[in-house]
Design a protein that fits this description.
With 375 residues, this protein is of the alpha/beta class. The chain folds into two domains: 197 residues, Response regulator (Rossmann fold, 3-Layer(aba) Sandwich), CATH 3.40.50; 105 residues, Response regulator (Rossmann fold), CATH 3.40.50. A seven-stranded mixed sheet has the order 7-6-8-9-10-13-14, covered by helices on one side. Helix 6 crosses helix 7 and helix 8 packs across helix 9. The radius of gyration is 24 Å and the shape is globular. The termini are far apart. About 2% of the residues have low confidence.
Length: 375
């Protein structure tokens, strides 16, 4: 009888040991976080800032035990900010069984990749894709962002140009990107409804164009007293430089697509006085000061354009998964829209469309070689 009991004790002990090992193995499986950004080319500074934001947020989360006891593993891919590459990146990430995505950086790339993530119920949070249709259309219930949309930004730009600077002749210019055309379109639509006669030019010019001299001459002939430019820094810097070569004092207003050190470096002295709308400065928040300090200590430079927004995106995701208590898509989606979280861009949650509450745009101006927020 004793041998019989001993035999069963060994079997039962082995069973519980195997069960423990299985549970431990599952618990130890990492939370695989896809980070889709641009890491090469002229727009790399935007993507690198976003990747670093995700990396430092993950480092902080992992030091505190991870997400649901799992360490977070970043799987980063470069989409070049191009739709066709974004589609490839989305497929690559899906093949690696990711649990969620931070990205993409550019609106066009985001549009291209979202169906892939949506079909797999993958939560996707962008720190920088501002095209309003990403949330307005209702086509992407899995999509969220930690930056305000272009229709909000367009209103801020028009308020600056018309009501604050009292400008009367506006040239609306874009770089033909999805982001650039989208933002310029909102500026145009708003002005057409409120003050149509102020529009003296509406046109796009490709970033790769070598004919900026003639394009700037067209702006000059329009007698515009302001250019509202929608797009990224490569095109903006070339136009600004040509304007100053032609001794044009035309006010230059742009958006978050140029609010980066790369624009100032490429434009040189021509950048002085340029205005840019971009996410408001949150350096009065202790968390913001702390994470910026960590960034500077690690990289020995100022954070890039979307560092804080990417950091916030990771915190929002982690908070929602913890609140949901699982990786279940519906539960995490519900938590994102009902649970707020303190981040370096403020205390945020997401509305039913996926837009972050508590975010907004401020106006910045290049003064003595740096962007300064105007109060």
């Amino acid at each position: 009888m004793n041998n019989y009991i001993k035999k069963w004790f060994i079997i039962i002990s082995a069973f519980f040991m195997v069960s423990f090992l299985i549970r431990t193995s599952v618990a130890a499986e990492p939370f695989r976080l896809g980070v889709a950004v641009v890491k090469t080319g002229e727009l790399a500074s935007y993507g690198i800032s976003g990747l670093r934001g995700a990396e430092l947020a993950v480092r902080d989360i992992n030091s505190k035990g991870g997400i649901l006891g799992r360490q977070v593993k970043i799987i980063a891919e470069d989409d070049l900010c191009l739709p066709k590459h974004a589609l490839i990146v989305a497929s690559k990430l899906m093949s690696q069984d990711i649990h969620a995505v931070i990205g993409h950086i550019c609106s066009g790339a985001t549009f291209a990749a979202l169906d892939t993530y949506k079909n797999a119920n993958i939560i996707t949070i962008s720190p920088s894709a501002t095209n309003p249709e990403l949330t307005k259309s209702g086509n992407y219930p899995n999509f969220y962002r930690t930056i305000a949309s272009d229709d909000t930004q367009a209103l801020v730009q028009i308020e600056l140009a018309i009501n604050q600077l009292k400008l009367k002749r506006i040239a609306i210019v874009h770089d033909k990107s999805v982001y650039g055309k989208g933002l310029a379109g909102y500026v145009k639509d708003i002005l057409e409804k409120t003050d149509k006669q102020k529009i003296v030019l509406y046109e796009g010019v490709s970033t790769g164009s070598i004919n900026y001299t003639q394009f700037v001459q067209k702006i000059k002939k329009s007698k515009a007293d302001a250019v509202i430019y929608s797009g990224y820094h490569p095109g903006a810097s070339r136009i600004v430089r040509q304007m100053r070569v032609k001794k044009m004092n035309t006010v230059f207003i742009s958006g978050d697509g140029i609010k980066d050190e790369s624009f100032i470096a490429a434009s040189g002295q021509s950048a002085e006085g340029v205005y840019a709308t971009a996410p408001r400065d949150t350096s009065d928040i202790k968390m913001t000061l702390d994470v910026i300090k960590v960034y500077k200590n690690k990289y020995e430079e100022e954070p890039g354009a979307f560092f804080l927004n990417a950091y916030a995106a990771v915190l929002a995701l982690a908070n929602a998964v913890e609140k949901a208590g699982s990786l279940d898509y519906d539960k995490v989606s519900k938590a994102l829209k009902s649970e707020s979280v303190q981040t370096p861009i403020g205390n945020i949650s997401f509305d039913e469309r996926g837009d972050a509450t508590g975010t907004g745009f401020s106006v910045f101006q290049v003064q003595n070689g740096i962007f300064v927020e105007l109060k």
